[in-house]
């Protein structure tokens, strides 16, 4: 990569590092399985009903661009859009 940067004479603001990650919906359960008086207690695990991938990018000069968030579903409620709005995006 260093060879390509030198050959193309790229400045630090043209070289980016990107990372993709996914956020899972938080599932909580109040149901537990255990014998009365036992110290070996198991909680019932709930399955996540969606995951939300996101992409972040920062250039070599240290400037971050607004993140890309891919929302599940076909419709987005206004309250969700308001909660995830990023200035400059």
TrEMBL record:
Keyword Membrane: yes
Chain segments annotated as transmembrane: 50-71
Superkingdom of the source species: Eukaryota
UniProt entry tagged with the keyword Transmembrane: yes
Record key words, sorted: Membrane, Transmembrane, Transmembrane helix
Protein name: DDE-1 domain-containing protein
Origin species: Phytophthora fragariae
């Amino acid at each position: 990569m260093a060879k390509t940067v030198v050959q193309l004479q790229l400045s630090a603001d043209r070289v980016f590092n990107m990372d993709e990650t996914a956020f899972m919906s938080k599932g909580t359960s109040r149901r537990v399985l255990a014998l009365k008086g036992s110290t070996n207690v198991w909680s019932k695990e709930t399955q996540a009903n969606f995951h939300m991938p996101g992409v972040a990018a920062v250039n070599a000069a240290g400037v971050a661009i607004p993140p890309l968030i891919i929302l599940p579903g076909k419709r987005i409620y206004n309250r969700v859009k308001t909660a995830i709005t990023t200035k400059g995006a």
